[in-house]
Amino acid sequence: GDLVTVLFHLGEMATATESLDEATFEVLGEELGYRIQIVSPEDEDRELLEGFSIDLDQEAEDEGDDVLEIRPPVVTVMGHVDHGKTRLLDAIRNANVVEGEAGGITQHIGAYQVWHEHEGIERAITFIDTPGHEAFTAMRARGAQVTDIAILVVAADDGIMPQTVEALNHAQAANVPIVVAVNKVDKEDANPSKVRAQLTEYGLVAEEFGGDTMFVDVSARNNLNIDSLIEAVLLTADAGLDLRANPNKEARGIAIEAKLDKGRGAVATVLIQSGTLRVGDPIVAGTAYGRVRAMLDENGQVVTEAEPSRPVQVQGLSSVPRAGDTFIVTEEDRTARQIAEKREAVERNASLAKSRKRISLEDFTRALEEGKVESLNLIIKGDVSGAVEALEESLLKIDVDDSVQLRIIHRGVGAITESDVNLATVDNAIIIGFNVRPDTKARERAAREGVDVRFYSVIYGALEDIENSLKGMLKPEF
Ligand code: GDP
């Protein structure tokens, strides 16, 4: 409120819930004699963690080639609805179940790993098994990028559809290379070359046409060419991505899925991005914290250690983190809890600022009854000065008991303007319009800020409402 008042006097119309540009902050700092430092949300988290001697930049700074080891690529499957994303994810998973592997039961934990022999070397690939770009984008919106490569599934009988374009736009915006799976080639009306032709318009040019995007014709239904698709993913990873991480430190990564389990409490699938996660590690994920009590893989098997790119389901958290929350391992349990609490406080403040509503006359009556307010602030605007004065005079004559006070913080002649609304937001005032209306901007801002603007054409009407309100008798309007 105080800052808004200063801004108001500087001629800057702002409200307490509004974002300001950097220049305005500079002006504000100048005026108040402060040095302004602009901090991004990432910086803020970094700063928060610094208090606990956890350095997110450590990775970039002191990790040379000697400590970095190759990690598996993380792949998301995207594409239009019904083009076969789910079926393809099943096919990939089933194609790679090693015969006779100690009979685990397939679990949906949000991601899985498969192994593939590539040039004589067994390599792992991690698949996020929530298909579609919605989850991908939701995580990105939270600042988390887990995907290294996107498989764009296009049904060969259907061709490019709206969500195909959407998906490729999202992948391209995130700078994630795309491998195209031309699916359903078993179908009679399949036309894989048409898919290739269509996609050139979106900058995805097949290798056979001189481009650098790999296209693989597959049939998820018949398990056709699934191996070639995985091969293409690995080739794409090796061609342009430097997928390495240091496994020899405390783990860090991202929660990709989480839920409350009746028996096991909060369970979260995390993807390790660097370091190694072990049972017993103190961990904080978003605002959830705890000690890793147990870890399971996608086959329901117990895991004691998880290295970079490995998805594991973790038990032992205090609450359910959100998809896209980062997790870190701390040295002590206490630190994990403190970080979680600090983050929670930051979030609480942010949501409080968002939900803070302006007072309306009805609220005022209620607040009065609950003993929460002492003064009713009014702004009076009218068409002629005589009317404004008369209204003000009568209002101030209202006989109320000593516990409440009526304050007229501003009065004037003319339409209700944006600056009237601004003032109302600063001082939590109600605006009385006597034979005047707000202009468009003022109306929009009042609606946005929840400022109560009331219109009257007879003094008595205004008097009655205010008096009733001050006496705690105003009936809500419907
Ligand atoms: P999603 O919405 O992209 O996840 O698509 P689904 O995996 O649910 O597949 C949609 C439909 O297409 C289902 O009926 C699948 O059985 C079918 N389908 C998926 N892949 C193939 C394929 O390769 N060939 C044929 N003929 N049908 C397929």
TrEMBL record:
CC annotations in GO: cytosol
Keywords for this protein: Cytoplasm, GTP-binding, Initiation factor, Nucleotide-binding, Protein biosynthesis
Residues annotated as binding GTP: 79-86, 129-133, 183-186
Chief site of localization: cytoplasm
Subcellular location: Cytoplasm
Superkingdom, natural source: Bacteria
GO function terms (MF aspect): GTP binding; GTPase activity; translation initiation factor activity
Residue span, Tr-type G domain: 70-244
Role according to the record: One of the essential components for the initiation of protein synthesis. Protects formylmethionyl-tRNA from spontaneous hydrolysis and promotes its binding to the 30S ribosomal subunits. Also involved in the hydrolysis of GTP during the formation of the 70S ribosomal complex.
Protein family according to the UniProt entry: Belongs to the TRAFAC class translation factor GTPase superfamily. Classic translation factor GTPase family. IF-2 subfamily.
Name of this protein: Translation initiation factor IF-2
Gene (name only): infB
Part of the intact protein present: 380 to 857 of 956
